[in-house]
Amino acid sequence: MTNKKTQLCILYLLAFLDRANIGNAKIAGLSTDLRLSTSQFNATLTIFFVSYSVFEPLTNILLKKLRPSIFLPILMCVFLFIPSMLVKIWPPEVLTSWVY
Question: Which alpha helices (DSSP H) does 28-67 contain, by range?
């Protein structure tokens, strides 16, 4: 039982550090590099954390039902399919406008 508590404490600490790093990134100039206003930065964080909170438990359930040797290639194909469809839907000027 103590071993599981220790593992959970370590995972909680790592999750906290991960969330704290976004604040450090903002202080280091992330929002100015990306040309984001404060409201745009906050909206981006909200969208990220809400989607992360929704999809993390779902992927963990899928990972338990499927072996990693099956789950990871499926995940890779999904992440290959979505950007390739964005390229077909949107013109290149829209997709690369953040660079300039």
Answer: 30-33, 38-65
Q: To which residue do tokens 């995972």 refer? A: 11
Reported pTM: 0.59
Would 24 be classed as within a structural domain?
A: no
Whether the CB-CB separation of 47 and 54 falls below 8 Å is answered with no
- Residue 18 in any domain: the answer is no
Number of domains in the chain: 1
Domain holding 73, by residue range, is 68-100
The pLDDT tens digits along the chain (100 residues) read: 568 888 878 877 777 766 777 877 888 888 888 888 889 888 888 888 888 888 888 888 998 899 889 999 999 999 899 888 877 887 777 767 665 5
Inter-residue contact 58 to 78 (CB < 8 Å):
no
Give domain status of residue 92, yes or no: yes
